[in-house]
Design brief:
Layout lengths: L4 E6 L3 H10 L6 E7 L3 H11 L3 E3 L2 H5 L6 E4 L6 H10 L3 E4 L7 H12 L5 E3 L7 H11 L6 E11 L13 H4 L3 H4 L2 H11 L2 E9 L10 E8 L4 E7 L1 E13 L2 E4 L13 E4 L2 H12 L7 H15 L7 H20 L3 E2 L17
Parallel strand pairs: 1-2, 1-4, 2-3, 4-5, 5-6, 7-10
Antiparallel strand pairs: 7-11, 8-9, 8-14, 9-10, 11-12, 12-13
Helix pairs in contact: 1-11, 4-5, 5-12
The structure holds nicotinamide-adenine-dinucleotide.
Nicotinamide-adenine-dinucleotide binds next to loops.
GO molecular function, one term: nucleotide binding
Pfam family, one: GFO_IDH_MocA_C3
InterPro entries: Gfo/Idh/MocA-like_OxRdtase_N, Gfo/Idh/MocA_Oxidoreductase, GFO_IDH_MocA-like_dom, NAD(P)-bd_dom_sf
C-alpha cells in the first residue's frame, strides 16, 4: 500500500541535501515532519527554507515522536551506530549516511538488532543511482561486455585546513577513517557494484597532505572474485580534482566522467570492440531508462521497499561488504601483507582499525 512516510532528519549538513533532493523531490512519497541539529543556526535556516515546524536540538526528542516513520541520520560517522540502535529500538525505519559504522563487530551488532526489529536500515550510497553507472551496469548485466580484465578507480580530491576545521573529520573516533572511508567510499562502491567483491588485496596508506590522525593517501591492489584485477588510488592532495573509474572488459571499455563530486554521472565513454558489439549495446539501451539520480532515486526505492515490502535498495549486508573491504585494507596497510576476504570474526581488526598505523 502506498502512503506518505513521515521523516525526521538529524544532522543538517548533507542532511539538507537529503531534504531537498531526496524527500522534497519525492514530495508525493515523503513528508519531512521534523529536523534535529545541535547547531541552532542550521536548525533555523533549514526549518525556514523548507517550512518544517518541528525543530529539535536533542536526538532523543525524535525517538519519542509517535507519528515519525523514518529517522534519517546525517550526523558525523562516530555517532551513527548508537543512533541507529536507538532508532530501531524506538520502532523507526532508519536511513543513515556513509560510512555507516567503524567495524565488522558494529555492523554485526546492527544486523542482529535489525533482525529482532520490524523496521529496516538503509545505508546511503546515492551515486549508484546515477545514469552513467546504471547504463554501464545494464550493458554488463546484459552479457555484452564479456570477460572483465582490469579496472582503475581514482579519487583524487583536494582538502585543506578549512575542511578539517570540523574536528570530527580529523580523527579516528569522529570519522572512523580517512580518505578511504570518507571520500573514496562512493567510487569504490561503484567498482564493487559493477565488478562484484574482491577476494584479496594489498593496501598501502599514509598521512601526507594534512596534519590529521587518519590516512589521506591510499593505494590498493585488488584481485576480484570475478577474476579481474583492480587498482584504487585515493588522496585529498590533488590540486586538480577528479573521480574516475575505468573498466576494461573483453568487448567494451567503460570510462566514467571525471567530475569529482558526481561519481557515476554521465557522460560515460563506452567504447565497443567492433560494430556488432556497438549494435548490441544500442539495442540493449534502446528502451533503458535509468532511475531518478542520486538521493531522489535511492529514497524513491526505499519508499517502495517499505510500503510494498520489496527488497531494500541497499542493505546492512551491502554495508558489511564495504566494512569487510575496509578492515582488510587497514590490516594490510598495518602489516604490509596481502589479505584474503572475507575477514573472519577472529580477525585482529574485527572490532575496529582505529589507530591502524
Ligand atoms: N553521501 C554523501 O555524498 C555525503 C556527503 C557529505 C557528507 N556525508 C556524510 O554525512 C555525514 C555528515 O557529514 P557533513 O559533511 O554533513 O558534516 P557536518 O559536520 O557539516 O554536519 C553534521 C551536523 O550534525 C550535527 N550534529 C552532530 N552531532 C549531533 C548530535 N548528536 N545530534 C544532533 N546533531 C548533531 C552538527 O551540528 C552538524 O550540523 C558524515 O557521515 C559524512 O561522511 C555524505
Amino acid at each position: 500500500m502506498t502512503r506518505k512516510l513521515k521523516v525526521a532528519v538529524t544532522g543538517l549538513g548533507i542532511g539538507r541535501s537529503h531534504i531537498e533532493d531526496g524527500f522534497h523531490a519525492n514530495s508525493e512519497l515523503f513528508e519531512v515532519a521534523a529536523i534535529c541539529d545541535r547547531n541552532k543556526e542550521r536548525l533555523q535556516s533549514t526549518g525556514d527554507a523548507f517550512g518544517i515546524e518541528r525543530r529539535e536540538q536533542d536526538f532523543e526528542a525524535l525517538l519519542a515522536m509517535d507519528d515519525i516513520d523514518i529517522i534519517d541520520i546525517c550526523t558525523p560517522p562516530g555517532t551513527h551506530r548508537d543512533m541507529i540502535l536507538a532508532a530501531l529500538k524506538a520502532g523507526k525505519h532508519v536511513i543513515c549516511e556513509k560510512p555507516l559504522v567503524g567495524s565488522l563487530a558494529d555492523i554485526d551488532m546492527l544486523l542482529e538488532a535489525e533482525s529482532r526489529s520490524t523496521t529496516h536500515v538503509m545505508p546511503i550510497m546515492q551515486y549508484r543511482y546515477n545514469d552513467g553507472v546504471q547504463k554501464a551496469k545494464h550493458i554488463i548485466d546484459s552479457g555484452i561486455a564479456g570477460k572483465p580484465y582490469i579496472a582503475t578507480c581514482e579519487v583524487h580530491w583536494h582538502r585543506d585546513a578549512a575542511y578539517y576545521e570540523r574536528e570530527w573529520r580529523r580523527t579516528w573516533e569522529g570519522a572512523l577513517g580517512g580518505t578511504l572511508m570518507n571520500h573514496a567510499i562512493h567510487l569504490n562502491d561503484l567498482l564493487f557494484y559493477l565488478l562484484g567483491p574482491a577476494r584479496s588485496l594489498f593496501a598501502r596508506m599514509a598521512t601526507r597532505v594534512n596534519p590529521i590522525e587518519v590516512e589521506d593517501c591510499a593505494s590498493i591492489s585488488l584481485d576480484m572474485k570475478c577474476g579481474a584485477l583492480a587498482t584504487i588510488s585515493a588522496t585529498t592532495g590533488s590540486i586538480e580534482q577528479l573521480s574516475r573509474l575505468r573498466l576494461c572488459f573483453e568487448n567494451v571499455t567503460f570510462e566514467s566522467d571525471r567530475t569529482p563530486y558526481n561519481p557515476g554521472g554521465e557522460p560515460w565513454k563506452v567504447v565497443p570492440a567492433n560494430d556488432d558489439i556497438a549494435a548490441r549495446i544500442d539495442a540493449a539501451l534502446k528502451n533503458f531508462t535509468p532511475p531518478p539520480a542520486r538521493f531522489a532515486g535511492q529514497m524513491r526505492e526505499f519508499h517502495k521497499a517499505i510500503c510494498n515490502k520489496t527488497p531494500l535498495p541497499l542493505t546492512l549486508a551491502d554495508a558489511r561488504q564495504s566494512l569487510d573491504f575496509a578492515t582488510a585494507c587497514y590490516w594490510s596497510a598495518k602489516t604490509y601483507s596481502a589479505v584474503a576476504l572475507p575477514v573472519m570474526a577472529d580477525h585482529p581488526f574485527y572490532n575496529g582499525w582505529q589507530n591502524a598505523f
